[in-house]
Amino acid sequence: MLVSGEPRPAPEALAWGALAGASGTIGLLGFYRVLAEGQMSLAAPLVAVIGAGLPALVGIVLGESLGALQLLGVGCGLLAIAIVSWTGGAPLADPAAVARGEAHPAPAVTRAWPLILLAGLGFAGFYLAISQATASGGGAIWWPLLAARAATVAVGLALVLRARPPMTGLRPAWPLMLVIGGGDFGGNAFFVLASQQGPLAVAVILSSLYPVTTVMLATWLLHERLRRWQVLGVVLALLGVVLIAT
């Protein structure tokens, strides 16, 4: 922000940016929590589709001009997110039941749904709020992102002080956490830049294709084998990108 010399926008833009940061943080916490509950196969596709589908729908309802091929590309992208994110397994058992030593613990499906909705709505709220922040700020980029990150840190610190989790064993993970934080912020910044170049629906769908990238990197770097439906998801994602770009 200091290097760009961007002038400070109206307080409304900073408020939207802070709301985006808080919403995204809540979405991440809900997503990590539902994974900890053992609901990965159920959560991953639903969270991704909710987080991407709602902002795309809002953009279309508000009158963003998308051609027939772009709309078809949006549909392919949403379907690809769901297919690639799906692990193909049944929901895992309730960890509490496993700890009690039950031979056949029942999966905590019912408990997962509020967390899935919380995570999906949190991600959707970030996309919508940060887009509104840049619009309210007359195209400002770095001030809204600063407000978003400040809100993220504030919410995170408040939760840490409330929960007081153990801090032992974190020192070796600090370099990796810094890389993760930088990558997350970079993703946010590039999304803001992309959303200013075209319709919100297009930027949201393309930004939400990260499960496809993860699967492809796992295949390339970790030599993991793609399942058949994941191959189909990658093909749909590439088709969606081509259609959206036309």
Oligomer: single chain
Distance between the amino and carboxyl termini: 33 Å
Relative helix content = over 70%
Shape: globular
| Percent range for β-strand residues | under 5%
Please outline the major beta sheet. none
Strand count: 0
Class of secondary structure makeup: mainly alpha
Topology pattern, helix = H, strand = E: HHHHHHHHHH
Number of domains as seen in the coordinates: 1
Q: Mind telling me the C-alpha Rg? A: 19 Å
Short description:
This protein has one domain (11-167, 174-245). 74% of the residues lie in helices and 0% in strands. It has helices spanning 11-36, 40-61, 68-85, 95-99, 109-136, 142-163, 174-195, 200-207, 210-221, 228-245.
In words, what does this structure look like?
By secondary structure, this protein is an all-alpha fold. It has one domain. The protein is built from ten helices and no strands. It has helices at about 10-35, 40-60, 70-85, 95-100, 110-135, 140-165, 175-195, 200-205, 210-220, 230-245. α1 (about 10-35) packs antiparallel against α2 (about 40-60), α2 (about 40-60) runs antiparallel to α8 and α7 packs antiparallel against α8. It is globular.
